[in-house]
């Protein structure tokens, strides 16, 4: 799958949520994965969403 975002923020958010929800990664690991793909401004929102169990 290919994803594109001008800043990378939305791609990073999607990667972090995937890591946490679908891959079962710990919060710190999922957030770091998102940051490494450009997660910045959506970091708090992603963190809050990862707190909700899936």
Automatic annotation (TrEMBL):
InterPro entries for this protein: Prot-tyrosine_phosphatase-like
Protein name: DSPc family Ser/Thr protein phosphatase
Organism of provenance: marine sediment metagenome
